Amino acid sequence: MARDYAWRNWWNGNKAQIVQEVIIDVQPPKIEVLSQQHNLTQGGSGLVIYRLSEPCPVNGIHVGDNFFPGYAARSVLGESSANTYMSFIALDYRQGRDTRMFVSATDRAGNQSKAGFHFYIRGRNFKKDIIRISDNFLNTKMPEFENETEEGSGSGLIDKFLEINRKLRVRNTDTLKQAAAESDPSLYWKGAFLRLPNSARRANFADHREYHYKDNTVDEQNHMGIDLASTAHAPVPAANAGKVVFTRAVGIYGDTIVLDHGFGLFSTYSHLSHVAVRVGQMVKRGEIIGNTGTTGLAGGDHLHFGMIVHNVFVNPVEWWDSSWIKNNISNKINSAKKR
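The line above is the sequence of M23 family peptidase; the predicted structure tokens follow.
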């Protein structure tokens, strides 16, 4: 009802009144987790499939402080799977067995529900590595980063290296995570992901690196990918089908490509000498997208390959393993199709 201050009706003003039936929704959505086993390894990935009783604009999986949004699964599971969602999840390499996980869903009225599910986390210890920094490396690489360092960071080359390896590394890693912030609601990939052909592994995922200069430990960092070395300027295939969402130089990572494989899953390709694709281009599994190189903070020709789930770097080894994909992804999808 509304009333004004007009003199009409003996100074009682004008009155307007509208009667409208309103339905107040105080019923939270119901959550049914369809996938059965959720066995994850520290630094690894997983898949949770669940059904909601109603459409919910916000839903997904909480893993510690990280949130992994759910994607409508109808395009994967079939037309009968209304209000069924799939969420690829990840454990940060620092998240161990005490990490909490649960599903949450918030409907249009703001009602929220949470539901737990059975999971098991395998803890693991990551390797340690020593990187020896030589004056030759500093003289060769530091000029490339002249515009990347702040004034007053120190006059010596080792001081510039430390700023790059610490501050610039964080900014560059955040840039790649930002490139993976939005993902297409389509599952582009199928089967095991490819690794660089005829390559040797030079560094592992989440290696704890000590940087030594003149027999002193000057820095420590963790390696968020796997380094693969083949011949110089070796052709780099797309690990699986997807969309190119990023192609440019990123500081320590050098010339980099990021592919979106859908539903929050991404692959990254760094230190490239040549980029053969453009943003928005769809690529097939095995299609050549560039060549290995030494761009960025690379001491020799190689590919730095990474996998990201939403905004968390994960161990690529799992995604190369066809048995792991079958047991942790494909079997869950096939089982959900029957429910």
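Note on the example: The first strand starts at residue 2 and ends at 3. Helices lie at 8-11, 74-77, 135-141, 157-179, 316-320, 322-337.
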